Amino acid sequence: VKQLEALATPALLLICLFQALPYFFFVHPYIQLIVSTCCTVFVGCVRSVSQTESEAMSSKDAYMFPVIGSGVLFSLYVLIKYVSKDYLNILLGLYFFAIGVAVVHGATQPVLKDLLPKSLS
Q1: How far apart are CA 33 and CA 38, in angstroms?
Q2: Helices 85-115/2-20 angle, 10° precision
Q3: What does the alpha-carbon distance between residue 11 and residue 31 come to, in Å, rounded to a whole number?
Q4: Longest Cα pair distance anywhere in the chain, in angstroms?
Q5: d(Cα 70, Cα 60) in Å, to the nearest integer?
Q6: Is the distance from CB of 8 to CB of 51 less than 8 angstroms?
Q7: What is the pLDDT of residues 57-70, one digit of tens each?
Q8: For the chain, which has fewer Cβ within 10 Å, the N-terminal or C-terminal residue?
Q9: End-to-end CA distance of the chain, in Å?
C-alpha cells in the first residue's frame, strides 16, 4: 500500500499535466480522456484503501434517501419555474465555483502536504 501511495502524487500531477497540455499542444481528446480517467480512478482507489475509518449507511439513512431526493428535485423544479434565467445563471455559476474550489482544494491537499514544509501546510 505504501508503494501505491507513493504513485498517487505523480498520478495527480499527470492529471494536472493533461488538463494543461492541450493549451500548448494538440492532444487527442480520447488520449486525454483515458489518461485522466485512469489516473483519477487510481488515485481514488489508493485513497480509499489507505483510509482507516469506514462508514456505513444506516437503514434510516436508506429510507430517507428517496424523500430527500424528491425534495431536492421538487425544489429545483420550483427554482427553474419561478426564478429569472439571469438569477438562475448567477446562482448556478456561484454554486459550481464553490464546488470547484472545494474539489481542487481536496485534490491538491495531499500533494501540497507532501511538497510543502510543515510550517506552510
Answers
A1: 8
A2: 130
A3: 15
A4: 54
A5: 16
A6: no
A7: 889 989 999 999 99
A8: N
A9: 24
